[in-house]
Structure formats: C-alpha cells, structure tokens
C-alpha cells in the first residue's frame, strides 16, 4: 500500500500520510466497534432510516467518509462503485458512503448524476476520531466482528488487486 498516492482534502502534513502508510490494509488493528450502551455509531439514509454499526456485526463494513466538493473523493468514487458491484447480491458486505457535510440532497444527486450504485448516509451520531480524523476521503473497513481492519486516508484505487484480495478474504471469512 505504501506505493499509493496520499492525496486528501484537508491533509495537513506529510507526517500524517506517513502514519497512514504504516497501517497496511492487511494488518488487523485492535479497534472494535463501540458498545451498544449509547456509544454506538449511527448513520441515516435519505429516507430517514438509521443504521448502527453494532447492528452490522456479522458483516464486513466498508465506510467511506467523503464530500461532493472534495477532488480526491470524486476521483476514487468510480473505483468504490466498481468494488461494490463485485459484491452485488452478497449480504456479507455493506457499503456506507457518509457525506460529512450532511447535504443528503446534494450527495444523492451526485450519485444519481454519475450513475453510481452507492448508498448515501449522513452521520446521525458522533463519529469517533479513530474512524474519521481531519482528512477526507477516509475509508474504514471493519471485519465481521466489528474490528477495524483498515483506516485509509486519501484517495485510492479500490479496484487494486491488493484491496480486492483483502476484501475477498474478509467477506469469505466466518
């Protein structure tokens, strides 16, 4: 992963990019989902329905924090759409495209205009800094136990063989 470009909106220093580079996507981190005791992370879709991360345990969760004005976000969107397409009909993985600006109409229109099959959400609770720091795009991948497998700042090609291999392994795991 170190060969990837670390472009991100609001990415303040190269030090932060270097820290991100040191976190290989295949390495399992020790961060788990917050407990259901009130610290859960919740998102809301365009119909007002909410989804909590704790309710998604048992599934691989791909969360992308983005905004319509962010060039690296827009650049990586086709590859996220293609990655999601590889798992069409597979209930073992969930994609959450979280508009950090809370502009549901604008972000939904963006997805429709570009013919992306990506579900848009907005935060309905606080987002822990372990998930979203100060840069977008930021992608978080959780395994079926709710453990954070990767936190990736900056734009990526989500159709790269390395990422597809890791996601496949997560989806196929018990």
From TrEMBL:
Residues 27-172 form the Thioredoxin domain. InterPro entries: Redoxin, Thioredoxin-like_sf, Thioredoxin_domain, Thioredoxin_ResA/DsbE_sf. One of its GO terms (molecular function) is oxidoreductase activity. It holds the Pfam family Redoxin. PROSITE patterns: THIOREDOXIN_2. This is TlpA family protein disulfide reductase.
């Amino acid at each position: 992963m170190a060969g990837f470009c670390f472009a991100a909106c609001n990415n303040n220093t190269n030090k932060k990019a270097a820290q991100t580079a040191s976190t290989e996507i295949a390495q399992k981190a020790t961060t788990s989902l917050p407990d259901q005791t009130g610290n859960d992370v919740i998102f809301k879709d365009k119909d007002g329905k909410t989804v909590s991360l704790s309710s998604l345990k048992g599934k691989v969760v791909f969360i992308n924090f983005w905004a319509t004005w962010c060039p690296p976000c827009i650049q990586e969107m086709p590859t996220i759409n293609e990655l999601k397409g590889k798992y069409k009909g597979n209930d073992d993985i969930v994609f959450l495209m979280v508009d950090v600006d809370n502009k549901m109409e604008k972000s939904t229109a963006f997805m429709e205009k570009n013919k992306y099959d990506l579900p848009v959400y907005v935060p309905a609770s606080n987002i822990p800094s372990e998930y979203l720091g100060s840069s977008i795009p930021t992608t978080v991948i959780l395994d079926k136990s709710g453990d954070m497998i990767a936190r990736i700042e900056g734009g990526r090609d989500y159709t790269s063989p390395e990422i597809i291999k890791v996601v496949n392994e997560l989806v196929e795991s018990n």
